[in-house]
Amino acid sequence: ERPGMEYAGIIEFVDGKVVERYSKAIEQGGEIWGRVWFYLDITDRKKKEQELISRNFELDSFVYRASHDLKAPLNSIMGLINIVKEEKDVDLILSYIGMMDKSVEKLDAFIKQLTQFSQDARLKVVRQPILFNEMVESILEDLRYMEKADQIKIEVNVEQRGEFLSDPIRLGIVINNIISNAIKYQDMKKESAYLQISVIADHEQAVCKFVDNGLGIDPIHLEKVFDLFFRASVQATGSGLGLYITHNAVGKMGGKIKLVSNIGEGTTFSLQIPNRISSQK
Predict the structure, then answer these.
(1) CATH assignment of the domain containing 76
(2) CA atoms of 79 and 99, how far apart (whole Å)
(3) Are 217 and 261 in contact, with CB atoms under 8 Å apart?
């Protein structure tokens, strides 16, 4: 090292700690007689930098996939409109209108999920009284006219003991997404499709289970189903946002979500949501 030379570097430890090291030679009479070393723990800064890189990547992926999922049904509608303009056969025109209707439904569902995504990202977690029976019944009423909703038998069993406080918007999003998935991915080959909903809520927590006998998910995909824009198969018609939003919303309420599924057997979602009746929880 030359007199007066400065040195800087990064030390990464096996336990994940990151330290920035800097030194400068101390000269006297043209000779180095010592060196001053400075060490700064930058572990938190590095973690935040990595989080920022990850979030930027997620944002880029989100914008790309969102624009694609919005354009696809729009392109379909515009193409069908051009065909209808030239078509004289009334039956064919009605058929094309039906196709347009399906594309509009896809757009509507995706826009609703974008709204859920926005709500979960920006709204503060609140504590308000929850009446599970009323919430589930209200969601079922909202989904009443969803495609194939009339072809699945839904059983609801709610046992709520005392007051329960949680975030009604996020809890509603979670329950809505799980029920709509059960309706959407029911197994049409089975004689009787069903969804069994059970809720047991007390002063500590709510344990919610959603059991269906639908198409199911291959176990090899279960670790990824909560990832942003993940679709378990090319047959999946969803946006890949629903379960990502569901997982995030459960986490912000301080809860846990578990998924068990097998192809051809069905899916079980299990939720544990803490009762926020005490501000210390």
Answers:
(1) 1.10.287
(2) 11
(3) yes
Residue 30 domain boundaries: 6-41
| pLDDT tens digit sequence for 77-114 | 888 898 999 889 999 999 999 888 888 887 887 787 77
Paired residues of 270 in beta bridges: 209, 258
Q: Is residue 70 part of a domain?
A: yes
Closest CA to 178 of 154, 201, 204, 206: 154
Asked if 150 and 157 count as a contact pair (C-beta separation under 8 A), the reply is: no
- Both structure tokens of 10: 């990064």
Q: Is the pTM of this model over 0.85?
A: no
Specify whether 136 is located in the same domain as 258. Answer: yes
| Torsion on CA atoms 42, 43, 48, 54, rounded to nearest 10 | 120
Task: Count how many Cα atoms sit within 13 Å of the Cα of residue 71 in the half-sphere of its side chain.
Answer: 6
